[in-house]
């Protein structure tokens, strides 16, 4: 299907990176969760915890235990960029409402240095955005070298909500799958490792989470009546996700479908995906561009 | 001096906020560290820990203990902005090299949700920046409502390094003090609480920290020979800081001189400054703009 040439048996670069990564997973989510040929969304159980056999408490402990690894790798990525390395990472988060995008940002990205993170939440496009092609506003938010970019929603909204709600013509939606592949290939070619994540929850789980937002006054601001309208189109959304993933999963920009009914699992899984791509980049501390002994002497006299 | 009408006895809005804040300080840094009338930089001991009588370990524990308070206040600030509240916070960090700006961002801001932080490090101005007035690039980085903005360096470089190195004419430097006061008054009037921090280290402490950067291969990338050139102008910089603080300390945008030889103290002090302004804003959870019972019924049927 298209140039979607990812695969399900983990022979891509992410798979090789796993060996270097943390050993808390029996097999890394980079392998287990990657959407490959013949991918079927309905085969992914939102309650599952692939590769991790521990309890919720062990999962929470595993998240904290790898905070330092993510942070240290990110700092090295940043340091290497100061002397010309062009690598960056782009994490794209897509999901139904309440699936936990915000929790990923807070609990996974929150452990890294804010100076090394560029977070952007894509809202409804502005008039200026709409006056351009749909990828224009996305390009402007790409991470600089040395930075981990995090997209809370993305250009995939243009083939998800726009498809489900018929906001663009079918031919235009069709054009976009190809445009996205070309765009992501271009971005990856410039040194950005792209990690695309769909957080996958069940419809029942969403009901419970929306109910919690209605039950708690400190959560009311996260709820809008429109959330229920979208929920009613659940099956259409699942179909739109399936098609989008199938059409845009490439080696340059693989998709990972992360079971997310258990928030703790989704967090360690995404954390591991990031650790794996950072190990694959393997950024190095720059060699000094000065004579250390000479600078020590200058410093002593200053 | 000018309209710099801050004061040293803590009767401003920040002082009132202290009562609500954490009690780990005998008196809040908002009071103790604020540059007031007759401010003299040489009166600030970089080794001191004003208002905090605990040990380094107790300081580190105090930082972690208030992580949650800062995070919770920031979330409420963000929530309130969703229904029209216009408040934001802007933390401006200025300091000599190695004074710990990066550590503040990592260890203080790092505890808040990345979604609620806008961090920007100002580098040397680009050609486009230079084609505009010096405040142009600053205005573009101001935090949106609901967000805590953090400036790592700022428009103050235009009256610090530019003054010390004679990069702008004396009349232009003179004009900028007034322009900064007007600009910050405008920003504050729009709902942004401005907190200006000078992290104050001693010249000896800087030598030790630069030496550490030379001793550790994983720190080499943070060092440049030019750092020693700047260090040689230490007294000129202290004078430029003194004048800048004296000319731009206002009730709208107070300056705090934070002793920073002890990193742990500087971190809890800045954390407390932020907690105090957030308490002063006192953001509230928004009331729901929908009928909760009706939405529960809709949800049950969906």
UniProtKB/TrEMBL annotation, chains A, B:
It holds the Pfam family PPK2. It comes from the Bacteria. It comes from Arthrobacter ginkgonis. Residues 56-281 form the Polyphosphate kinase-2-related domain. Gene3D superfamilies: P-loop containing nucleotide triphosphate hydrolases. This is Polyphosphate kinase-2-related domain-containing protein.
């Amino acid at each position: 299907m298209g140039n979607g040439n990812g695969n399900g048996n983990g022979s891509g670069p992410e798979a090789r990176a796993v060996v270097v990564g943390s050993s808390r997973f029996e097999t890394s989510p980079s392998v287990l969760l990657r959407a490959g040929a013949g991918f079927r969304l309905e085969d992914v159980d939102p309650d599952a915890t692939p590769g991790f056999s521990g309890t919720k408490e062990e999962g929470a402990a595993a998240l904290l235990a790898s905070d330092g690894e993510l942070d240290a790798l990110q700092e090295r990525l940043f340091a290497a960029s100061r002397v010309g390395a062009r690598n960056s990472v782009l994490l794209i988060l897509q999901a139904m409402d309440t699936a936990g995008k915000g929790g990923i940002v807070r609990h996974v990205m929150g452990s890294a240095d804010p100076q090394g993170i560029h977070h952007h939440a894509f809202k409804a496009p502005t008039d200026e955005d709409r006056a351009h092609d749909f990828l224009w506003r996305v390009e402007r938010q790409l991470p600089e070298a040395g930075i981990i970019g995090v997209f809370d929603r993305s250009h995939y909204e243009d083939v998800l909500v726009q498809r489900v709600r018929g906001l663009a013509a079918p031919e235009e939606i069709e054009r976009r799958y190809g445009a996205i592949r070309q765009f992501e290939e271009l971005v990856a070619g410039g040194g950005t490792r792209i990690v695309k994540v769909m957080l996958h929850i069940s419809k029942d789980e969403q009901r419970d989470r929306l109910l919690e937002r209605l039950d708690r006054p400190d959560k009311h601001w996260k709820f809008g009546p429109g959330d229920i309208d979208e929920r009613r189109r659940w099956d259409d959304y699942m179909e739109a996700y399936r098609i989008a993933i199938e059409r845009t999963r490439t080696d340059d920009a693989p998709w990972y479908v992360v079971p997310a009914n258990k928030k703790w699992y989704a967090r360690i899984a995404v954390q591991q995906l990031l650790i794996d791509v950072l190990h694959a980049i393997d950024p190095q501390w720059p060699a000094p561009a000065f004579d250390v002994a000479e600078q020590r002497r200058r410093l002593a006299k200053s």
